[in-house]
Write a structure and sequence with these properties.
The complex is a heterodimer of chains A (about 550) and B (about 60). With about 550 residues, chain A is of the alpha+beta class. Chain A has helices at about 25-30, 45-55, 80-85, 90-95, 135-145, 195-200, 265-270, 270-285, 330-350, 360-385, 390-400, 405-410, 470-480, 495-500, 525-535; strands at about 35-40, 60, 75-80, 100, 105-110, 110-115, 130, 150-155, 160-165, 170-175, 180-190, 205-220, 230-235, 240-250, 250-260, 290-305, 310, 315, 320-325, 465-470, 485-490, 505-510, 515-520. In chain A, helix 2 links the parallel strand 1 and strand 2 (about 60). The longest helix of chain A has 23 residues, at about 360-385. Chain A is globular and about 70 Å long. Chain B is an all-alpha fold and about 60 residues long. Chain B is globular and about 30 Å long. Chain B contains four helices and no strands. Chain B has helices at about 5-20, 20-40, 45-55, 60. Chain B has one domain. The chains are: A alpha+beta (about 550), B mainly alpha (about 60). At the A-B interface, helix 11 of A face helix 2 of B.
Chain lengths: ~550, ~60
């Protein structure tokens, strides 16, 4: 919502573009079947389109709006998402605009009880977290999407029906001119929490709603405080409640405050109440200058997901498949990971570089990640908004102790953002090699380290990459491996070989999304090639 | 801990609860539990104590 007298997209700092519906010559081919239809041109839909384009696959994006999203307001973009931006060639604009951060501070009744650092070092290419408004996220992705000849976007085009056929889907699309039918081989439902594709397919999100409700408000002010996430427990302006404060670019500050059980949502959203509550929060943090109200909304913590993210040739990606509480900052970040995951897999299958079975690994991998978020976020939610007397008493005991005792403050430390591990996936080989005495296991993300020039991940190609530590093995693999394997030789001993616990003939097979598909302490070319075919669901003879 | 030391703890807690008043005793005891647990290395002793403390709470009602 915006202050009285302002239009829905009238922002203090961001100019929303206006996108025309398809018209003129564009309309002539509007009924031609497409290979990939992406429903929703939000951050997730655009990321999927870019990931597919990276594999040379054409797609068409459909969105019922005429501009960017004004409802959802993610602000925290994690390190893992920056790797995705980098693979899509868009990271530069994100790095330039966003505010990186590593520190969080928690306060209890105005006194600091905890300061935590998220893992970071000079061996990391990206910071653990960056704050940036969703409008900028969408703008930067749109800059790349609109420049990409493989991607067509149809704005003001709403999906009003979908029917699954044996070899694809028939979509009914409504634009300002008419309703038309269109066939698509594959459909990616990136249409958010209120997904119409999900509704038309009769699919339901399952799970539970948490009790806590938060008002989220963006204000513009000249506030001299570094990019550090602040959590205020039981502060003067909101006894018993929790407040979160984040800095964003353009002097915008995000304030989230918890509503009391007897406070109605309608009352809380009233502009006068918003202004009064924000003033009280700002007084609590000793900000006494002028501020301007930009936007506000209300949010409640849910943990909801589909049982299966695949429905025939339809894949659910991002919020259409799962809704997670804000505290783990994994709503949008998990959506990006979903998009990157289905993007490379569908691209490889459509290009016949991988077998169709690879697509079945999407839902277990990404739904597993959602379940992991639910587990961690539930813990976080229980501390931020204790659901029962028992949780509240122990939370209050911890906070009260934390004033004098450091150990109790650690109970307020949110779980760190560690990417979910795919070790159980059918697109990952079991990590059985007991000769490894360390290093990352298969199913984990390849860890980062600084090399003489650049970083370890800079060596990865957009194909599968084999990291070898012996020149003979590397040469032999380069001569015998299929084209879709990229071979890299890393000198040994080196920082990278130590990090990976690699011996002379060790090898790591890394997927296009940076996950380790397999590793061998003592590899030969045959083992690596066989492992590769196994995780891409293709028989060796076929290539 | 010797009997006489335990008796000192018993008295100190009783006096403190009275000192703080009934409205604060629950939070006080929760804090005390966390403080004491933090001094323990053996998780199983703490978890067993939690279960043991929950026994026979409604003795007077049973008769």
């Amino acid at each position: 919502m915006r202050p009285a007298g302002k239009a829905q997209t009238e922002s203090l700092y961001f100019k929303y573009p206006y996108f025309e519906p398809p018209k003129g010559a564009e309309r002539d081919k509007i009924r031609d079947g497409v290979r990939v239809a992406i429903v929703g041109a939000g951050p997730i839909g655009m990321t999927v389109a870019l990931a597919l384009a990276l594999e040379g696959i054409q797609s068409v994006l459909f969105d019922n709006k005429s501009t960017f999203n004004d409802g959802s307001r993610a602000i925290c973009v994690a390190r893992s998402s920056f790797y995705i931006f980098e693979s899509l060639g868009v990271s530069a604009s994100f790095l330039k605009k966003s505010l990186g951060w590593t520190t969080g501070r928690s306060f209890y009744r105005g006194k600091k009880i905890l300061e935590f650092q998220m893992p970071d070092s000079t061996d990391e290419k990206f910071r653990p977290m960056y704050n940036i408004q969703q409008q900028f996220i969408e703008k930067f992705l749109w800059d790349a999407v609109s420049a990409n000849p493989l991607i067509e976007t149809r704005w003001q085009s709403e999906i009003v029906g979908i029917e699954n056929k044996f070899n694809g889907s028939i979509l009914n699309i409504k634009d300002p001119v008419e309703i038309y039918e269109l066939s698509a081989e594959w459909v990616l439902a990136c249409d958010g929490a209120h997904s119409s594709v999900r509704k038309f397919r009769g699919q339901r999100l399952k799970g539970k709603n948490f009790e806590g409700r938060y008002v989220i408000v963006d204000v513009q002010m000249d506030h001299d405080y570094p990019t550090i996430r602040r959590a205020l427990f039981d502060s003067d302006c909101r006894r018993g409640g929790t407040i979160l404060i984040h800095k964003q670019p353009e002097n915008i500050w995000r304030i989230d405050y918890q509503l009391e059980d007897d406070e109605s949502t309608e009352h809380a959203l009233d502009e006068d109440n918003i202004r009064a509550n924000v003033s009280a929060v700002l007084k609590d943090i000793d900000f006494n200058d002028n501020w301007e109200l930009e936007w506000w909304s209300v949010y409640s913590a849910n943990t909801l997901a589909l049982d299966d993210y695949r429905d025939g040739n339809i894949f659910f990606v991002g919020d259409s498949a799962h809704i997670v509480p804000i505290f783990g900052v994994r709503g949008l970040n998990n959506g990006f990971a979903d998009a990157a995951n289905i993007g490379w897999k569908l691209g490889w299958v459509m290009n016949e570089k991988a077998g169709a079975g690879l697509l079945d690994s999407y839902s277990p991998e990404r739904r597993g990640a959602t379940m992991d978020v639910f587990h961690n976020a539930s813990k976080s939610s229980r501390f931020m908004t204790p659901p029962t007397h028992g949780w509240k008493l122990m939370r209050d005991a911890a906070l009260s102790l934390a004033l004098e005792h450091k150990f109790a403050g650690e109970l307020a430390n949110p779980r760190q953002f560690i990417p979910y591990n795919y070790s159980e996936s059918s697109a990952i080989l079991d990590d059985r090699d007991e000769n490894f005495l360390g290093g990352p296991r298969s199913g984990e993300v390849l860890p980062e380290t600084r090399l003489d020039s650049g970083y370890l991940t800079d060596l990865l190609g957009k194909r599968f990459t084999v990291l070898c530590f012996n020149l003979d093995l590397a040469n032999s693999l380069a001569n015998t491996a299929p084209e879709s394997i990229f071979v890299v030789h890393i000198s040994r001993p080196s920082k990278a070989s130590k990090l990976l616990n690699a011996e002379n003939n060790s090898a790591y097979l890394v997927r296009p999304d940076g996950y380790i598909a397999a590793r061998w302490k003592q590899a030969n070319p045959d083992m690596v090639i066989e492992g590769f075919f196994k995780v891409i669901f293709q028989s060796r003879a076929k290539q | 801990m010797t009997d006489s030391k335990l008796e000192m703890v018993y008295e100190a807690i009783a006096l403190k609860i009275d000192d703080l008043g009934a409205e604060n005793s629950e939070l006080f005891l929760a804090k005390l539990s966390l403080l004491l647990a933090n001094e323990m290395d053996d998780l199983s002793i703490v978890l067993k104590a939690i279960d043991d403390a929950a026994l026979s709470l409604d003795l007077s009602l049973k008769e």
